[in-house]
Write the structure tokens for this entry.
Amino acid sequence: MSIQKFSLLAIGTIISGCATTYVEQSSGDLARVRFVAKNSGAPTAVNLYSEKNCENKIPVTSLLGRSIELFPIEKRLGIPLWDYSANAAKEFNMPANVEQNIMIIQNTGGLSSIACGAYFQFTYEKNNDYEIIFDSQKCTATIYKINGTVENAKRELINTYSSSSNVSQSCITEFKNNAR
């Protein structure tokens, strides 16, 4: 394994920490969700939390927002409007009709420096497709619902969250802990 590939794996492991990782469901009330890192060449972590106060972190994935394909790992479920490199976006089955607590954090390239992040709660609707785009230049996470089939799909803007969105003190502490 090359040093570059090892570095990307090491950074991904450091970002996700030692917490339990996300176990994707294949049945039940589900929605398909695409997480995207935009305008970023640095690692971006997507984490779920079992509580609104950011307790019990569950790492979902790490993304790289530019076309860095040294070690591409594609994760697609067939959500329409895919226009990303394999490392910039990943698609997952996520529980529907249950509020999700989500934090997306971008690492600036150093092992302990965080550029920005966004924390929000969202409830996916059963059998729908979503795209969450984290833009590191604006430090925002924008949620779109993707309607239609592959031939006529369109994005419907739902909401945009920033690092200054309504965040609890415990989530701010969790964000800072991820920066260590």
